[in-house]
Specification:
Keywords: Amino-acid biosynthesis, Diaminopimelate biosynthesis, Lysine biosynthesis, NAD, NADP, Oxidoreductase. With about 240 residues, the chain is an alpha/beta fold. Helices cover about 35% and strands about 25% of the residues.
Length: about 240
């Protein structure tokens, strides 16, 4: 594939490295921090797909500009959920290709599936309360992570007794609120765990990334998928996860 990178931070660099190893071509790279923002006035080369990893404040305009220019877009920027929903709706209406995921790791998306399955099982069992922990490197700007929020939102969708999530410890102890613990230390690529605790035992499912390599590989699989499909695209569609 001929790829335009929008954002050349840690994830952008990881995607670039993995893309070149796979025989793909980076035809342009835009990054506000490097003095080359992506905009309607920029010279945009021919490319098969745009891959966007920037910051929440830039993501909506970046992705909209690329979609309006006719590119399929793969975005992994987190912290702009309302903007994502708008672009998903516009992509369905206009036949654009917009692939969004808060986490492109295949393993994390299997964790999502396990989380939903376990939550469904526990709706028939009383006494288990969920909590979520996520750990990342000190440079990650958003907290909780988009992945942790997605895990929490899946629990809320499945069990209506949960009304929201909150950073832990919450200001008010409430069994209807799912607490999320966020840790920022060292160079941790990413850890997510969901724990269901009762008075007599505990069930934990977790995923730990060893590097960004798995994320970058997932992004490139998504990019290939986006070149062949239209509309609002996600990892569940690509991996054919139907539950």
């Amino acid at each position: 594939m001929d790829i335009i990178l929008i954002g050349h931070g840690r994830m952008g660099q990881a995607v670039e490295e993995e893309a070149l190893l796979g025989g793909h071509h980076i035809v342009a790279c835009f990054d506000t921090q490097q003095g080359k923002p992506f905009s309607r006035t920029a010279v945009l080369p021919q490319a098969d797909v745009c891959i966007e990893f920037t910051i929440a404040e830039e993501a909506y305009n970046n992705c909209l500009t690329a979609l309006e220019a006719g590119y399929p877009v793969v975005s992994g920027t987190t912290g702009w959920n309302e903007g994502v929903k708008k672009l998903q709706a516009l992509s369905e209406q206009n036949g654009w290709s917009f692939f969004y995921a808060p986490n492109y790791s295949i393993g994390v998306n299997l964790l999502y599936s396990l989380n939903r399955h376990l939550a469904n099982l526990l709706t028939h069992v009383n006494g288990y309360l969920p909590s979520i922990e996520e750990r990342h490197h000190i440079f990650k700007k958003d907290a909780p992570s988009g992945t942790a929020i997605a895990l929490a939102n899946d629990l809320i969708d499945i069990d209506p007794s949960y009304t929201n999530w909150a950073p832990a410890p919450p200001a008010i102890e409430d069994n209807h609120i799912i607490p999320i613990v966020s840790v920022r230390e060292g160079q941790i690529p990413g850890y997510h765990g969901v724990t269901f605790t009762s008075q007599v035992d505990r069930i934990t499912i977790e995923h730990e990334a060893f590097s960004r390599k798995g994320l970058a590989q997932g992004v490139l699989l998504a990019a290939d998928y986006a070149t062949k499909h239209k509309g609002a695209l996600d990892m569940k569609q690509m991996l054919d996860i139907t539950e």
